[in-house]
Amino acid sequence: MTIPVQLHADRYLASIGGEPHVFHCHHYNCFLQKSIVEQSALIDATALLTEAATEVVLPELRALGDVDPAELFRHLGFGLLDLSGLSANGGTVGVKGSHYALGWVSKFGKSSAPVCFFPSGFIEAVARQRFGGAYQVKETACVATGAPECRFEVSRGGRATVPPSPGMGRLDAFAPRPAFATKTTVDETAIIAACGGLPLGGNVEGRVDVFGVSLTRHFANYYNLVSFRFDQQMEAVAGEAAAIAARLLLVEAGQVCAFHTFGGIMESAEWEGLIKPMIGSTEDWIYGMTSVVNALGWGRWSVAALDPGRRLELVVDGTYESNGYLAAFGTSTTPRCYLATGGTSGLMNLVYHANIMSRPALTPALYEQTFRDGRFFVAREVECRAMGAKACRFVAERM
Predict the structure, then answer these.
(1) SS3 74
(2) What is the pLDDT of residues 4-39, one digit of tens each?
(3) How many CB atoms are located within 10 Å of the residue 265 CB?
(4) CA angle 230-232-238, nearest 5°?
(5) 327 in a structural domain
(6) Tens digits of residue pLDDT in 237-286
(7) Are residues 121 and 200 in the same domain?
(8) pLDDT at residue 207, as a whole number
(9) What is the pLDDT of residues 113-142, one digit of tens each?
(10) Domain boundary among 114, 141, 156
(11) pLDDT at position 374, please?
């Protein structure tokens, strides 16, 4: 069965059934989730992480009609979903090779509690779509805790209604693209076309293993809803200082993503074969990586200014974060593109601080050294569409 992925080339986005999808790896997915779970004393992290999943999966399933939910789950890279035990009265659902469980173990080791919050919300959406009415899902066994398979119990009950998803969000016209700050031999158009031809759907095990990481073609609005609600809930229960701490964690999740995903891409065979021959300078590594980003569904990234080894200014049109925030929450008084902020600092640190050109092992020790030691790069979002700007602008500079 073919999953109908729609590419919006003019907006550097992709969607399935009207829901925007973006590529992200297990490092980002699990770090973001762990950051929220660790605040469970203050907020209901389980509800936050599962309810958002149901809210974005349900409208997609409705739009796709006859598409098998298990095939969608597999294609997106979340593992293998066994729905044979699900009926109108509930039942038991199994997941083999859960992306979240396996990712958690590989990154953090064994967990003391189940970690498959997104799959729980996905399964709830399937039950609601198939049978109507309200359902709730509880993970009763998880590979991350040592179980041989992830198991979920489905029962009647839970929320009577599910809020609508932001969908594609607010899509504004793109501003004119800034001229390249320096000359580059990198061919962005060729890179985007080549990345689009890579086999980035789930394999027979429901995994997308590429670039040295486990990828998912995830729901952009899942990231948006859990991130922005996390920010809001932390501020509501513990004040502005807690909200600032939450935002720092969300930005660091972006740095973790950049370190592992960007780093893995720049050390991959695909980079060696396609992009490396275009590179004539250290700065071309920046241009090459932003070209790859423009194939991930994150919006259009453009280098506005690059002072080698000192400063990077990126302009991003139509970030999926600002698209979603504006549609779901309205205008903001603070910048909201946490992933893109962390990605900006991560890119500069990889090239000019971690020396990714020498192909270092992307270990936890190197991450700590890169983002904690010496004069590393820190990024800030200086203009944000969520605050009324025409585009989002990010600046990374050394401490």
Answers:
(1) helix
(2) 999 999 999 999 999 999 999 999 999 999 999 999
(3) 23
(4) 95
(5) yes
(6) 999 999 999 999 999 999 999 999 999 999 998 899 989 999 999 999 99
(7) no
(8) 96
(9) 999 999 999 999 999 999 999 999 999 999
(10) 156
(11) 77
Please compute the mean of the pLDDT values over residues 287-316 and round it to a whole number: 95
Q: Are 324 and 221 in contact (CB under 8 A)?
A: yes
- In terms of domains, do 196 and 149 share one? no
The number of angstroms, rounded, from the C-alpha of 154 to the middle of its chain's C-alpha atoms is: 27
Contact indicator for 345, 396 with CB cutoff of 8 Å: yes
Is residue 337 pLDDT above 90, yes or no? yes
Strands (E), 43-146: 80-82, 86-87, 90-96, 135-141
Domain assignment of residue 253, given as a range: 188-210+239-398
Q: Is 239 exposed, middle or buried (0-12, 13-18, 19+ CB in 10 A)?
A: exposed
Residues 73 and 198 occupy one common structural domain? no
What's the CATH number where 373 sits? 3.30.1380
Whether 303 is covered by a domain: the verdict is: yes
Residue 169 has pLDDT above 80, yes or no: yes
Would you call 281 exposed, middle or buried from its count of C-beta atoms within 10 A (0-12, 13-18, 19+)?
middle
Q: What is the pTM of this model?
A: 0.96
Rg of the Cα atoms in the chain: 20
For residues 142 and 193, state if they share a domain.
no
Q: How many domains does the chain have?
A: 2
Segment 372-399, tens digit of pLDDT: 887 899 999 999 999 999 999 999 999 8
CA dist., res. 232 & res. 252, Å (int): 18
Q: Is position 24 within any domain? A: no
Q: Could you tell me what percentage of the chain is helix, strand and coil, using 3-state DSSP and rounding each to the nearest 5?
A: 45, 20, 35
103/198 same-domain check: no
Check the CA dihedral 14-337-125-213 and report its sign. Answer: positive
219 belongs to a structural domain: no
